[in-house]
Fold this protein.
Amino acid sequence: MESQGRMESEGTDRGTDRPSRKERRRLRQLRREREGRRTHRRAALRRWLVRGGIASGCLVAVGGGYWLWAQGGPHRLPKVGDHWHAAYEVVICGRQQPPLAYSPGNIHTHGDGLIHIHPTTPEEAGRNANLGRFFANSGITVAAGRIRYPDGRAYRDGDPCPDGTRGRLRLLVNGEANASMDRYVPQDGDKLRIEFGPE
Ligand SMILES: [Zn+2]
Ligand SMILES: [Zn+2]
């Protein structure tokens, strides 16, 4: 009686609730394989994302580098509290103009051939600290293609110099032509030359 009962219970156990040991092993094996494939896929995705990240990082670096190169270096804008200096000269028809006298405002000159840039208000800082403002503080209008002094002397692109050659207004920043003219924001240490002369 006793042994029969045990056998019966063993039989029930094996037949209905639990899969056989062999089957369990097979299921485990299957699960492992599935896990393995999933891990593999995840690793591949991670690799792909890392490579994509590196590639786009390189693109951003190259693009940024090109931008800086095209701008001629990192162009900074002066903040309130900065104090920068840039040398300047104006040459009209081959004649160097005397340095401007002390001028008002904080984008100004002390009569020393330097532009002193020390903004004290946002109106004089950033893009507002440009050449146009510097010259305007001395009563001189500088714009693309023209320069005009308070004494009435004015030169426009195409006007003749005394020797008969037609002139053009140019801005050179550290020896390089720059089309920004009055909108150019001098950088600390710049050497600027505004010249009106033969094309
Ligand atoms: Zn200064
Ligand atoms: Zn000053």
